[in-house]
Amino acid sequence: MSGKSVDLNKNGKGNKLIKEKIHDPYMARCKPTEPTVCSECGVVFSSGRWQWMENAPDNPKMILCPACQRIHDRVPAGYLTLQGPFYEEHKEEIAKLIRNHSDRQEQEHPLKRLMDIEDQKDKSTLVTVTEHHLATSLGKAIESAFQGDLDIQYTDEDTVVRVYWER
């Protein structure tokens, strides 16, 4: 659907209204009041964005940030599947790259978080993250460091991404 809807008035004439497309149901439709602090992780919404602060503001509103809400609900925004003989041989090295890359991203962008790294029955590993750009950048970082085949698949709504890397 194009995101457009038509409302017909009494005369049968249509008023074309463009509905705002909500890309990510975990992102608020409006900005939280400032200051707001996540009751789970302590990230602060200030100056129009979520950020880490050494000193929390006085009398903040307490909510769950979008990343903690995703973690609580167990609803990742990105999935990264790793597999292949090369992966099996270099699993620990690739896991370190994933953790280091995720930690760096989280320092700059508090909503980009690693949720879980799970070994699957088929010898692949599934990495889940709270933000779809993180899944994409992890896949690209692994491809850059270790080559291999990278496939990135977005959903129609762009709210979830599935990234596959194999070598």
Structure description:
- It is a single chain.
- 28% of the residues lie in helices and 31% in strands.
- It is α+β, with helices and mostly antiparallel strands and 167 residues long.
- It folds into two domains: 23-71, no CATH class; 74-166, Alpha-Beta Plaits.
- The chain has a five-stranded mixed beta sheet. Strands 5-4-3-6 form a four-stranded mixed beta sheet, with no helix packed on it. Strands 1-2 form a two-stranded antiparallel sheet.
- The chain is elongated.
- This is ATPase.
Keywords:
BCAM0308-like, ATPase, 167 residues, 4-stranded mixed sheet, alpha+beta, 11 strands, 31% strand
Kindly report how far apart the N and C termini lie: 37 Å
DSSP strand count: 11
Q: Give the number of helices.
A: 4
Q: Looking at CATH, which topology of the largest domain would you report?
A: Alpha-Beta Plaits
In one word, what is the shape? elongated
Q: How would you spell out the order of helices and strands? A: EEEEEEHEHHEEHEE
Biggest sheet, spatial arrangement of strands: 8-9-7-11-10
Look at the structure and give the mean pLDDT: 87
Taken together, the total number of domains comes to: 2
Oligomer: single chain
CATH architectural designation of the largest domain:
2-Layer Sandwich
- Percentage beta strand: 25-35%
State the name of the first-level CATH class of the largest domain.
Alpha Beta
Class by alpha and beta content: alpha+beta
- Backbone CA Rg: 20 Å
User: Main β-sheet, in a few words?
Assistant: 5 strands, mixed
Helix content: 25-40%
Low-confidence stretches: 1-7
Organism: Hydrogenovibrio crunogenus
InterPro entries: BCAM0308-like
Protein name: ATPase
